[in-house]
Write a structure and sequence with these properties.
Layout: H1 14-26, H2 41-53, H3 58-67
């Protein structure tokens, strides 16, 4: 298991989003990632913002987060 420490307060900043993107990019086809924060909201926001950097569609990212119980309607994607 690889651990990446990317602390965030409130909305993840550019450094946290880039660390998330770098972590996702380093995954192999069968690898999985676990992102952790107390409520999951910062993790969900960092994931969505990182996926947006890779060209993800904002509405699809918000829908995926909503399906997991997170409202990213106010996150700038």
């Amino acid at each position: 298991m690889r651990v990446v420490h990317a602390p965030a307060r409130g909305l993840p900043d550019a450094a946290v989003v880039q660390a998330t993107r770098d972590t996702l990019d380093a995954l192999g086809p069968d690898d999985k990632a676990v992102f952790f924060c107390r409520s999951g909201m910062r993790s969900a926001a960092a994931w969505a913002m990182a996926e947006r950097l890779a060209g993800g569609e904002p509405d699809l990212l918000r829908d995926a987060a909503a399906a997991a119980g997170y409202d990213l309607s106010r996150v700038p994607l």
